[in-house]
Amino acid sequence: KATMGEKEWYFFCLRDRKYPTGSRTNRATEAGYWKATGKDKEVYKYMELTNKEKETMKVAELVGMKKTLVFYKGRAPKGEKTNWVMHEYRFEGNPSFCNLPVGAPK
């Protein structure tokens, strides 16, 4: 979702690494940089399972992580904090898009 005039935009992209052999993410832009704030939060998929005895139980499966970032104008460490906030979601493990529910957006 990326419509002009809207307050929320959604983008999907591959992660850009800061160093070719490293695991750090490059979040710098020409105008500034995105800085992580707080701890990553877990994202769960909730399901109801029924066993042979017809007993139902709720199960939570960790599917990803959510990181909150704030945009700073300029270069670190002297950047100027803005009111732009981004929530970055990432899959945990090997996601399979074959397991999406029928009618789910792809």
UniProtKB/TrEMBL annotation:
Single annotated GO MF: DNA binding
Q: Does the keyword Secreted apply?
A: no
Superkingdom in the source lineage: Eukaryota
What the entry lists under InterPro entries is as follows: NAC-dom (IPR003441), NAC_dom_sf (IPR036093)
**NAC domain residues:** 1-106
Stretches of the chain forming a coiled coil according to its record = none
One GO cellular component from the entry?
nucleus
Q: Which UniProt keywords apply?
A: DNA-binding, Nucleus, Transcription, Transcription regulation
GO BP field: regulation of DNA-templated transcription
Q: What is this protein called?
A: NAC domain-containing protein
